[in-house]
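We both want to read discrete structure tokens more fluently, so let's practise on a single case. Once you have written the record down, we can walk along the chain together.
***
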Amino acid sequence: MGSSRKVQDFNFFNYGWKRSINEHVQFHALAVVVEVNEGEMSVLLPCQFSGFIPEDPTVMWTRSDLQPKSVHLQREGRDDLREQNQRYSGRTSMRPDALDSSDFSLTLRKPTKTDSGTYTCSITGGRKELRVTDIQLQVKGQQQNQNIYTVKPELQ
């Protein structure tokens, strides 16, 4: 006889969780699309959490297609940008009260087309990682006003 593991499915604060006997927790995040024009002052990548925040939490924003993948990290309510990808240096911020408000949204200043991609907001505590949301950021090229002039030849 082979061994089997019993998995219980339940909804917790409108998020889909699967919990097995060995306390492994998986979180199923839904992707959100955010569009912004290149040249805007900033764009907000939303990440609201209404579940249980683990002990000694770290909030991470990452992009898996980059190396290093860290976009922004907040540990114990303070930014920890030592391993931040250099392309985001000086351009990201989170609310200082993020853990109290459960608002882990990321502000990205001066978005460029190369910022387009999938961003993941997750929370870790101990050995557990909760993937809160995936954001698909689409940065569009700058809107340029093109003036069209019609030149009419002068009749003599």
User: Anything to note?
Assistant: Confidence is low (pLDDT under 50) at residues 1-29, 145-150.
